[in-house]
Amino acid sequence: MPTINKALLKSIEQLAWEAGEAIMQVYRRDFAVEFKADKSPLTEADKAAHAIIARGLQALTPEVPILSEEDTQSFKGANTQGFYWLVDPLDGTKEFIKRNDEFTVNIALIEKGKPVLGVVVAPALKLAYLAARGLGVFKTDDDVQWQPIRAASPPLKGQPWRVLGSRSHADSRLSSWLGELGEYHLQPMGSSLKACFIAEGNADVYPRFGPTSLWDTGAAQAVVEQAGGGWLLLITSR
């Protein structure tokens, strides 16, 4: 089983930055857009980042399987200790295509269904969020220093909720939910950056009503939970 320590977290951060640089090389020039069977977009940046991360993880922890958004077919399940890597090589491809900088590289280590390590890198913004069980959660920027972060407490009575919303996934149920929340300020944002903003105390809540996938949330969940926040799944009817 992989040893969860600062050295492993640093190695995953470096790998995510390497994938991020490959993404930025495509971002700086013209690129083609394909569409997968589920109609989600795919670019050469997604493919390049996946190749770098898969190769790096296999070299780092050959005993741990990898589930990536760009390669679901080869994943046969967690290893005998319950571990696997969960990867979204380019989260926020729609934001990447729009060139608004709000896209990320997500890498999480899952143990028995729970994220125990997560790295989220936003290469265009030069930001990274790192979390691991037993180590805590950190943010890095151009200074390359790991700065501890902490989620905010819920707003006091009379204070507005700071709500994050998806830029690319509108849902009519959000309006109804917000109507029951009370006073709020709504800020749209792309990718797993929303969860990271909550983890560092810059927002209070991100309601999501549409479908999502494990690789969209694994690394971000680790970041939020290590920062003292919560991740809730609510089953509701339309």
TrEMBL record:
Mg(2+) 1 binds at residues 69, 88, 90. The keyword Hydrolase applies. Its EC number is 3.1.3.7. Its cofactor is Mg(2+). Mg(2+) 2 binds at residues 88, 91, 216. Keywords: Cell inner membrane, Cell membrane, Hydrolase, Magnesium, Membrane, Metal-binding. It is found in: Cell inner membrane. PROSITE patterns: IMP_1. Coiled coil: none annotated. Transmembrane segments: none annotated. Belongs to the inositol monophosphatase superfamily. CysQ family. This is 3'(2'),5'-bisphosphate nucleotidase CysQ. It comes from Vreelandella olivaria. The lineage of its organism: Bacteria, Pseudomonadati, Pseudomonadota, Gammaproteobacteria, Oceanospirillales.
